[in-house]
Amino acid sequence: FLMIRRPPRSTPKPSSAASDVYKRLILFGAPGDEQGRLDKLAKQKDNVYSIAGKVVLSEQMAIMSNLSLMVSMDSANGHIATLFGINVISIWGATHPCLGYAAFGQSEQNSITPSLEKYPRIPVSIYGAKCPNEYIDAINDIRVEEVIKRIKKVI
User: What is the rounded CA–CA span in Å between residue 35 and residue 27?
Assistant: First the structure.
């Protein structure tokens, strides 16, 4: 199993590309708008499943404990998966793992960040709440191929 949690503004390409690499792709997310986007994405491939808004936290954790790999933003899901000994690849935008929010015990190589040449002031936000306009889309600087390459190395 593989879990990917996408940021709201990003395109579904990483999830679609990962579904071609992995047997099953499980999308976790919040109820509401995010759930709608993830459900729509899941309908595009037979091996992609969205559980966004469909299961409670204890059920999400049971699923996480059986993953082979999790790909996520710096989110609670990545940290929870780490507690189960699951490899986590984290994707960063305006924040940065140097602030101490990377999933505990994970390889630094599993933290994928935007180009510091293109976005030299990163980290510009500690919690991702306030972000300068020119850095809002920094996460989209990360190429899908970079994420897939890391997935293949970890699995």
Answer: 9
Beta bridge mates, 24: none
Contact 139, 92 (CB under 8 A): yes
DSSP 37-86: HHHHHHTT-TTEEE-TTTS-HHHHHHHHTT-SEEEEESSHHHHHHHHTT-
d(CA 95, CA 75): 12
Identify the pLDDT of residue 123: 93
Q: Is 22 helix (H, G, I), strand (E, B) or coil?
A: coil
Tell me: pLDDT of 32 over 60. Answer: yes
* C-beta neighbour count of 19 within 10 angstroms: 23
